[in-house]
Amino acid sequence: MIERFLKQTHFTSVEDYNKNLEFIIPENFNFAYDVMDVWAQEKPDGLAILWTNDEGAEIRTTFAQLKEQSDQAASYLQSLGIGKNDPVMLILKRHYEWWVIMLALHKLGAIVIPATHMLTKHDIVYRNTRASVKAIICAKDDYIISQVKLAMPDSPTVKQYITLGEEEGFHNWTKEWQQAPKFVKPAFVNTNDDTMLMYFTSGTSGEPKMVAHDYLYAMGHLTTGVFWHNLHEGSLHLTVADTGWGKAVWGKFYGQWFAGATVFVFDHEKFNADTLLRQIEKYKVTSFCAPPTIYRFMIREDLSKYDLSSLEYCCTAGEALNPAVFDKFYEKTGIRMMEGFGQTETTMTLGTFPWMEPKPGSMGMPNAQYDIDLLRSDGTPCEDGEKGEIVVRVGDRKPIGLFKHYYRDEELTRDAWHDGIYHTGDMAWRDEDGYYWFEGRIDDVIKSSGYRIGPFEVESALMTHPAVVECAITGVPDDIRGMVVKATVVLGKEWKDKAGEELVKELQQHVKKETAPYKYPRIVEFVDELPKTISGKIRRVEIRQKDAK
């Protein structure tokens, strides 16, 4: 498959990859037709999806069956008047139908807007209005249905409401979709520049932005699945991600199917490390990817109780990985996690690839499909060891995988992307070997007594203390120092009854030993959980807003 889209398909070193990665770009590329339907012809009995849920249900679907189902779904959606350029919002959790409907909408040239199941009425109205949503397809879930119904009066652009079951005012997907006539492919579906997918950002630092991606965005994830996840046709890959955020198509859709791998889905209501590990053991998952938060909880289990011998490869992204978590997971499993970095606006821009030696806590090196640099605040390039903003230099041709724009917001687009440079807003430094090390969002950097302190370096120091499960570092205004460092800490269950001044002092002394003493948290607050986006990213902005009241 990948030989259709890459001039060279195997790489042995950083130099080889950087020099020889070159895409073959078809005219009017469409992932559903040009990858999935081709697999259905060439590998009809290959297992495309292995779906399970926390009630013991199981669905196994071949590539041929998935083509048949996505064609049928496309025909049904056509019958409801959905076609090219129509924005359709999906609120489907991890239900099996999400994969079928995603492909169906691609086949129609519609614009897919995946959304989290945690949206409120306000969130839904905001998205419907900003994107002129034409249809909503949602899970048959009491909370989701109630919020969608509340949003209906303020959502005049929405013409069709569809849910997975019987509900007044909604089409019944389960009953109706297989009754549609045979699918007829539209005469013209898309160009490479057309908008295929739009994500609302996770809102770590304000109102969600609407990120528009073209049809080549799917191709941009070829390197994610084939090289970063190191997948092949025999792989069974599990990425822990809700379908409402971008990591789902990073790890449960495009790149994995470019590789011809099987996508493993565990549809669950509430995360539990033991249950997840049992799924890996039962189904013999070979490849696993999750945000560091998931690994933090996994390593607190007795991993000797589980047979994880099927695991060949593990990756992480979504937040920077604390070296202490890397070391503990390696100690318990013998597997070295390969970290990656990217945004809703991009595919993977930095990563640790199979031909690289991982450095615990480093995001890796630039993905060769992007021209990555680090810039000072005055726009000049940083030296090795110097902190700066991660940027993408955009030449005459937009890199495959980079977003088109913030939809209907030219000013916001210009703020982030100007003078041939896309500004990520994320800070890092580069070591002498070319590896990048995350520092935090520009807004998260703390300026205290003339020092610039990145939250991640303090968080990493705290994470090496056995009491700490998770933590977030933020700045608190101070009359003397300008800002002081605050640590918001989630303790392990065996430490919760020790929360108090003595443990505060112990944690402060620990940080002073692990990193430069001036970085230690002068304020420590113990909490049961940290505020997070649905994608698992810590919302430091929420902690700062709470402290400012």
Question: Which characteristics define this entry?
Answer:
single chain, five-stranded parallel sheet, about 550 residues, alpha/beta, 18 helices
The gross shape turns out to be: globular
Cα-atom radius of gyration: 23 Å
Number of strands: 27
Strand portion: 15-25%
Number of helices: 18
The proportion of residues forming helix, as a percent range, comes to 25-40%
What is the end-to-end distance? 55 Å
Q: What oligomeric state do these chains adopt?
A: single chain
Spatial strand sequence of the major β-sheet: 2-1-11-10-12-13-14-15-16
Query: Structural class, please?
Result: alpha/beta
Taking the sheet with the most strands, its summary is: 9 strands, mixed
Low-confidence stretches: none
The overall pLDDT, averaged over residues, is 93
Could you walk me through the main structural features you see in this protein, from its secondary elements to its overall organization?
The chain is an alpha/beta fold and 549 residues long. It contains 18 helices and 27 strands. The strands form six sheets. A nine-stranded mixed beta sheet has the order 2-1-11-10-12-13-14-15-16, sandwiched between helices. It has a five-stranded parallel beta sheet with strand order 4-3-5-6-7. Strand 12, helix 13 and strand 13 form a beta-alpha-beta unit.
